[in-house]
Amino acid sequence: MTLRRTLTIAALLTPGLGLILVMVGSVFYIAVAQSFGYYNLSGDSAFSLDHWRDVLGSKQFGRSLGYSAYIAIISALGSIAIAYPLAIWMRKPFRGSLVVGSLLKAPLFVPGLVAAFLFLNVVAYHGVLNQFLMWTGLTDAPIRFQNDRNGFGVIFLQLWKNMPLALLLLTGAVQGISDEVVDAARDLGAGPLARFRKVIAPLTVQAMQAALIIIFIGAAGDFAFQVTAGPTNVQSMAQYMVFLKTSFGRWNQAAVVGVSLMGLALVGALGLAGLARLTLRGLKW
Amino acid sequence: MVSLSDTAPVASRRPRRPAFRRFTISNVLIAILLLVCVIWLVVPFGMAVLWSLLDPSVRWEYPDVLPPALSFARWIEVWNTTSLPMALRNSYILAPTVAVTTLILASPTAYAFARYDFPGKGAAQVLTLLPLVIPGFVLAIFFSALIFSLGIYSRFLSILLAHSVLFLPYAIRLMTVAFSNVRLDLVDAARDLGASPWARFRVAYWPALAPGILASLIIVFIQSIEEFAVAFVVGAPNFTTIPSILYSYLGYNFVRPNAAVVSLVLVIPNVLLMLGLERLLKSANPAQTGVKG
To answer: Nearest by CB to A117, which of B29, B259, B271?
Structure first.
């Protein structure tokens, strides 16, 4: 490659990729540096492990980390589990498939805060769900669904918002499998489950991994669903980080939580994606 | 005994399945799914519409299934007494600016990805996705530290910069596809026929680029309008956007009818734009616009 060509490509990449690298790199650097006592916005900056010691030693951090991991894992796996059968069912167009597909993917276009508000309306103490349950006689009195202690409301919202994304990715991948491959498996006596395990899942593993990674990272870093519909006895990592920064101005401790959240997102997303590949390879063999 | 089929005209003598067998499993599944979708979408949005139209003079409580009285009073009240008009103005000035800025920043990189082969191109394309894999609030909080240390005090400029970086991956991806669809044989033919650079752009580039440009503008516009983390952390309390207002109604001061109004103000234009985007993306079919020549 000539120097002129190299310079041309570098100049073209600078406003887009260059800006991304500078900005995201700076944000990452500031978070890591602040967690170790550097880059303080006020006061002296000096290397210190105290902030890590303080945060890692607090019970609240452990609970937040566990809670965010729990929400993210269930949301990622749940979205995939719901989306796969639907994607396989809609592999071939049928009468009404366009309408069904559009309706299923509609939550993708609804902002997270609006989704949370819609959910609160439905599950409110005197909301339509409780009215329906009492009308059918299933319950005598309204049930408190909002801010439940197990985070089921947040998981439901995550599934509502993220399942369409998984469906979008998986539908494309499943539709890419040629009929000959599926028919050959059927001719060789493979039932629906065997066809899924030995043909469809291995051939769509990349789409599944992409969906797992995107959903896991989004759910692990959730703030909006947690503060509106989540349990009040535990904070998500993002909520804990914002709380430390805004309530007490503890930038360094917020940075420790932020770096830990990035670590959780990275380890969890890659772990789930790797597990999916390993499992499917095992099934393939 | 003479059956009906014996007396029917020859053309309609094809054996017909009994009516009940036409209800295949697929049809039943569609019916169930449509019912679920109604519960999935119509009920929540219907509730939001009803709450936004609840007349302030009455209360909607158990056992009332529907509101006792409806009016547009809440809409008028929210418009006149809250900072919604200001938030709308901020959001609808910010989002188009972000969309245009992002398009300008993304286009050279997208052109390089579409037209040049170079070592590390795959890695470079993966690196453009970085803003999507950093949790939103981590990015927002430490971006606010960055702009504070850089001495940038304009909230508008700060959010503009953050949104542009956040949504660059979408614009780069869409524009890479658009630049790949420009047919080089058309460009060469136009040049051979003596077309000026502007004429070459209009004839050979624009038809392939237009759907990508419009799709990029729309998707970044929608993402910017909806974005909450940066707008909240960097903008609040001086620079409010629609999601910031909605958050204030969903937090400690939960005012359901007001939240319903703001939710609908936020979601309805986006749904309309998304429908437009879907049409655009369909029209941007590579089979129609040609492939890299």
So the answer is: B259
Report ipTM (2 d.p.).
Answer: 0.86
Q: Which residue has the tokens 């669903």?
A: A225
Q: Which of the listed CATH numbers 1.10.3720.10, 3.40.50.2300, 3.40.50.10330, 1.25.40.10 matches domain B83-289? A: 1.10.3720.10
Domain with CATH 1.10.3720.10 in chain A: 52-284
Q: Report how far residue B71's alpha carbon sits from residue A216's, in angstroms, rounded to the nearest whole number.
A: 42
Q: How far is CA B23 from the centre of its chain?
A: 37
Tell me if B109 sits within 8 A of A13, measured CB to CB: yes
What 8-state DSSP symbol labels residue A37?
Answer: T
**In chain B, where the domains are located:** 16-72, 83-289
Residue where the block lists tokens 């960055």: B146
State the smallest CA–CA distance between residue B202 and chain A in angstroms.
22
Asked if residue A64 lies in contact with residue A236, where contact means CB atoms within 8 angstroms, the answer is yes
Q: State residue A141's pLDDT score.
A: 86
Q: Helix, strand, or coil here: B70?
A: strand
CA max distance for chain A:
79
Residue A211 token pair: 């969906």
Q: Write the CB contacts of B93 (distance below 8 Å, at least 6 apart in sequence).
A: B156
Task: List chain A residues with CB under 8 Å of B63.
Answer: 131
**Cβ count near B254 (within 10 Å):** 13
Nearest-angstrom CA–CA distance, B59 and B75: 16
Q: Which fold has domain A52-284?
A: MetI-like fold (1.10.3720)
- Tens digit of pLDDT for each residue in B165-219? 999 999 999 999 999 989 888 889 988 998 899 999 998 899 989 989 998 998 8
Average pLDDT taken over every residue of chain B? 85
Query: Between the CA of residue A81 and those of A78, A139, A212, what are the distances in Å?
Result: 5, 30, 11
What's the rounded Cα separation, in Å, for the pair B253 and B55? 19
Residues of chain A found within 8 Å of residue B142, distances taken between Cβ atoms: 27-28, 30-31, 34, 255, 258
